Structure prediction request, 321 residues.
Amino acid sequence: MSSACPDCTSRTLCVKHAAELARRSVDSYVPQALRTEDWEPIAHFTRSLALDLHPKDDRRAVEAMRTLSQVVSWAHREGLPLDRERIFTPDVIDRYIAVGAAHLSEPSRATRRADLRRFSRALTRKAPWEPEPPRMRGGYSIVPYTDAEVARLLEVSQQQRTPVQTRRLQALLALGLGVGVYPKEAWSLTTDDVVVDQGYVCVRIPGEHARTVPVTAPHDEVIACIAEGDPGSTILGFVAPQWDRSRLSHLLQRAELPTDCPPLRTHRLRATWALAHLRAGMQLNDVMNLAGVTSWKMLGYLAPFAPATEWSELLPKAVRK
Prediction:
């Protein structure tokens, strides 16, 4: 079924329909990890909690239901009443993480704890939660890959043992280094989004930042080959569940990545694509349009790596006499 709104011209969900789809996902959710006799007594209560969180789309709705169903089921077995002010307190949540979520890995427990604290602040009025501290992002930067690192990534993509992993890795690099997609955009693009304009391979990217992006060589050959050889598929050759938070890990779980291979980060691929256009002399505004951004934040990340003009060349350009 298409993700587009039936009565909208956009190819993607508008806010109204995304919220409706999220509500349907909440109403229809049944946790596979719980027995029927454990789920039925808490189902209505859990769904009410999830709806009060106002998830923006079906992925967030499923994630909320999965997390809430686990903690509510545990609390119910512990004898707590179905009362949000009794369940979603700091002490109960900390005990659940220590006891009820002990089977999870440490990173998963940390993620669940952070989610439950955020949910609890939104769902309670009397529970003694302190305001969520502001996020600290000091020193955060995105470092593009060097030319040598790009060459090694491309080399590794050609050395995979199976055609499936070769396709996935080459497609990921082509979308990042050749199209500069946002990480979240890469997962839904299909061969139907590949078009040829004036003889050049392009990708039409729908969504919030809808645009058409020419594919930089040599990645245009990879995209064209996939479109011709596997029509109707996702470009990555991989379909991840909407709720999956580890899509990249699952995409690459069988890939052969030598120890000297640079770590694959989709945001670094995108930054490398943008920097390559700047180095080629493309105007900044054109790069921003192709990247689907309207702020100057990207320039801040790339400025330390962008080429600088020699003073002897810059001087007459700046004076313009």
About this structure: DSSP finds 16 helices and three strands in the chain. The longest strand covers residues 200-205.
